[in-house]
Amino acid sequence: MLAWFKRFSFEWTQKRAFQSYQSVNQEIIFYSESYNYWSHFEQIIRCLWEDHGQRIIYLTSEQTDPVFIKPPEGVTSFCIGKGSVRTSVFVELEGPLVIMTMPDLGVYYIKRSERVKHYAYIFHSINSCHMVYRPRAFDFYDSIFCAGPHQVREIQSLEKLNNLKPKKIIRQGYPRLEAIANDLDRHPSKSNNNSGPNSAIKVLIAPSWGKNALLERHGGNFIEPLLKAGFDVILRPHPETHKHSQHILKGIHARCHKYKNYTLETEVASTASLIEADIMISDYSGAAIEFAFSTQKPVLFVDVPKKINNANYTDHNIDPLEVFIRSEIGEVIPENMLYRMDHYITEAIRKRGTYTDKILQIRKEYIYNFGQSSRIAANELMNILANSTI
């Protein structure tokens, strides 16, 4: 009870400080549910400050968010928590422009404010948006910043089927891809080239979350054999797996922590494991596409049941990107063949040179403005801001 009261008191004080600051500083507002989403905002905010001199208000739900503890130049940050204080902040929010990467605005407890002129959504996944997201996930946004043409088609189809007013669609691209690629260029020595027969292959396991996701269905059953076979294994669970499936992670830890070649990574905002890994094992996670598109390394996709949050997604007659792209950027592995995962890994590594050009061509087809997406987003946000303050 005391801990709750201290947290509530802190968040309420932050709310008052935010509203006091905002009353004299009508700046662009970014809201982040956790630090894990900062990587989708960081370069855009930097371009807003460096190219346009535009200051930012950054709202976060985590007291441990480094951007709250030590905000970068041009950013003023406040922590509003995840409970009733946050709900009240959004109800009372006012300003010309609010940017988020949280779906379902206006559908559940986070409502639109009548005093906000424009809400913009920035994707935190390259995946399609008509199957894995809920049917009304984007209905109450004014503009959508899309990673690629697949998301544009899907948003337009959602608008048509639901008789919605067309939103402003920005063909932005995906800044996180560029951040990973830039880190890879800066630290090429971290990438294991496996030039000798005794070089350990680094395997990154980074699946999605939910009842049909890889870890929820198979736990450590396929991980321990890889460790015994001598692979260096990095397990990178989805943040929601930490929240909802701790019992599964504890079971994996009990089996695997004794192996020196096992690493559990909890910081998904980091790019280190993406750079170091030679190959990824995943399911339908957007992280798999990020990995392939930024590093040109292959992914092994375990063919678990699809993650479907929109039962009517087939009404759009659009195949989800995360389904059909699997065989283009890696290999699809039947669930009943998990026991042969070591074979699939070594075979994919053997022919990984054949993936590079293919992945680059596919990235060019499905991702807008690679290398320029943050600057394009910043310019578009400034245009929206100008029109919202007239």
From TrEMBL:
One of its GO terms (cellular component) is membrane. Keywords: Transferase. GO terms for molecular function: CDP-glycerol glycerophosphotransferase activity. The keyword Cell membrane does not apply. It comes from the Bacteria. This is CDP-Glycerol:Poly(Glycerophosphate) glycerophosphotransferase. The lineage of its organism: Bacteria, Pseudomonadati, Bacteroidota, Sphingobacteriia, Sphingobacteriales.
